[in-house]
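1st attempt posting a full record on here, be nice pls
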Amino acid sequence: MSSNVQTYNLTARVLHWVSALAVFGLFGVGYWMVDLSYYSEWYRVAPHWHKSIGILLCVVTLVRIFWKKITESPEIEGHKLEVLAAKVAHSAIYVLLFTIFTTGYLISTEDGRGIDVFGIFTVPGMGALFEGQADLSGQIHRIAAWALVIMSSLHALAAIKHHFITKDNTLNKMIGRIK
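the predicted structure (as tokens):
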């Protein structure tokens, strides 16, 4: 299907960049907070923020998927193999995001408590669904987070390559500039 749209719409661009900031921010905080001691002032604050922003990113991701389905997007530029790689990478990023959301939920709610999101609402907990839930989910969560950051970094490098080497409109489309 051919598209006449030259750039991503403002909503798509905002959702994309907010998601990118959240992914890298959550990764950094997650990496940092696992080594916090019980006596650190951040021991309770950092996980609360990490979980809250993670839940909000899940909502943003669902909105992104819905928005992508109901609006038209510009065509992916590049050779057939590049277009295929971009589609596979985008799908992998979404799979990794939902793996992280699911495992984060399983880690946080194993004890039956819900996840408080900045005091605005609470996502109910279902408790332990299987033996060693928090440990196994934690391992998967960490691996998926690393994979997501690596995949997102490759995604960014591909956009930079398209901008500076191929000199096409791939990056311009996501910043809203028509070349």
